[in-house]
């Protein structure tokens, strides 16, 4: 019985994770938002530059961050700050994974665009489980930073 209570608590905690989408391509951001919300999870907000991403950071637990944004190639710095200053689980989603190939301190990993909705779902589940200390399988499309 206690195990079932813990599992239910962990499952409930998984669904309370809020996702920040840092993406300057509006249609891609909307697609990510629809996928996350379709999973029954909340989107903390959409940001297309550093200023907006950092303003929304206190509302988020997980973030998908593009490398090249409306204010230039600021994604790596944003990802580092989100992870280190706000404790957010960060995954880069970019068409330029080589720009973060050496890793970004605090960030979890990178996925090359285009990213299918099923992969987004796997990433959200993995990151949410990781945040609450549950075992989760790393999505095969993600390169994990050391």
UniProtKB/TrEMBL annotation:
Swiss-Prot/TrEMBL keywords? Phosphoprotein, Plasmid
- In the record, which positions carry 4-aspartylphosphate? 66
Which portions of this protein are annotated as coiled-coil regions?
none
Using the record's annotation, list all stretches that form the Response regulatory domain: 18-128
One Pfam family per UniProt: Response_reg
InterPro entries associated with the record: CheY-like_superfamily, Sig_transdc_resp-reg_receiver
* Name the record gives this protein: Response regulator
Which species? Rhizobium beringeri
